[in-house]
Amino acid sequence: MAFCGDFVQQLGPDMSVKIFMHLDDPSELARVCAVSRTWRQFVIANDLCKILCLRMFPEVSGVTHVVEADNMIEPLKVRSCTSLEWEQRTRNHKVYAFLARGLTTAVGKNCISEAISASSTDNYPEESVRNTLEPRDRVEHRASYWSSKGECDPKVSESLVYKLNAKLCIVTEIHIQPFQAYFQFGSPIYSAKAVRFRMGHLKTRKMDEETVDDSGDGDESVENKYVWTYKSPEFPMAQENCLQQFKLPQPVLSIGGILQVDLLGRVQRQEMDGLYYICVAHVQVLGRPLSPAFDVDIVDLSGRCTLKHYPGVESRASSASSIKDEDGTPSRVRTFTAMLMERGVRSWEQMILSTILGTAVVVDSDESDEEIPD
Q: What is the pTM of this model?
């Protein structure tokens, strides 16, 4: 028996929202918006793209304001037939739709940009935290590792702070390799008992321009400089000379681009002085930065932030990315899609669909309720 009519109008907003929220892929919401003007308006009016982002990554709840920018914040263009509130909702819908697409892209590369500091360092700079960025534990016949200062109490912990390569990064797991002192008797491994991870942001924008100091006197400065908005559970660490993998319970959207590795407790005492040390050869953060079309400005210490979207960056990146077939000749479909994105299409939802599905999706232009500049 065929079902006639629009279920959104027949079931009402509450039940319709529940139905649409069974969709868990941004391409599916893009398809919904392409069905009809009524459905598209319903998705925008009920912030369904934002709800999808929040469901995938609760950290998005810190976003209090959304702007579209291209070197400067663009003013809203209000037409006589629309309200300022509707224009704001439409803009938010667009940004969150692109964000949702970015959040679902596959991850899998090291996204550490630089080592910032260590809570202590035994011999600086020979045993600096910067050495943990080197994947090998020996460089030019010299050992490469970070070492804490020695402690009588094995319960004393240490921390290493890193800057990620974007303020918005999806992090799935962290890899740590303890250092094995092959030059000491018995080749001891100076691992920690357990590890924990924190992610957050600088307290002020000015601090982002300050000189990095990894000399190892960082305990007090870390507390005064960063705000942590995520803390992982503790993971036991093995006393083994290998790259140990610690997978987070679920992927985390790091807003602010700062990661702290907490090394909890010590297991190895050095024979020559009887003190406990922690030594790390290498650290990796497995994940992926979001598109350069996105950036954030932190509003306050609670982690609230403004999400900034640069649509020109998104468009240029999409146009330049792989518009050739395997034999090196231009792909007609991809070239056509890139052309649509450059010139402006009936609906930017079609950009999302064409990018995800790899095909050009075009809807009659008379259904559009947006003005798209040439």
A: 0.76
In a domain, 159, yes or no: yes
What's the angle, vertex CA 109, arms to CA 103 and CA 112, rounded to 5?
A: 95
Angle ∠(45,50,52) on CA atoms, nearest 5: 115
DSSP three-state, residue 317: helix
Per-residue pLDDT 10s for the chain (374 aa) are 445 567 777 777 788 888 888 887 777 888 888 888 888 888 899 998 888 888 888 888 888 888 776 544 344 454 545 578 888 888 888 888 888 888 877 667 899 999 999 999 999 999 999 999 999 999 988 999 999 999 999 999 999 999 999 999 999 999 999 999 999 999 999 999 999 999 999 987 655 555 556 666 554 566 678 999 899 999 999 999 999 999 999 999 999 999 999 999 999 999 999 999 999 999 999 999 988 888 888 887 777 888 888 877 755 555 554 444 444 444 444 444 444 444 443 455 555 555 544 444 443 333 444 433 33
The bridge status of strand 268-269 relative to strand 294-298 is unpaired
The verdict on 84 and 191 lying in the same domain is: no
Q: What domain count does the chain have?
A: 2
**Residue 178, domain CATH:** 2.60.120.260
CA distances for 219 relative to 115, 223, 260, angstroms? 15, 7, 12
Which 3 state secondary structure label does DSSP give 138?
strand
The domain in which residue 353 lies consists of 23-104+310-367
Helical pair 37-45 and 84-103, crossing angle rounded to 10 deg: 90
**What CA–CA distance (Å, rounded) separates 240 from 367?**
62
Does any domain span residue 8? Answer: no
R_g (Cα) of the chain, nearest Å: 25
CB 117 within 8 A of CB 222: yes
**147-to-33, 36, 166, 218, 259 alpha-carbon distances in Å:** 55, 62, 27, 14, 19
Give kind and range of the element (H or E) at residue 227.
strand 226-231
Cis, peptide link before residue 125, omega less than 30° from 0? yes
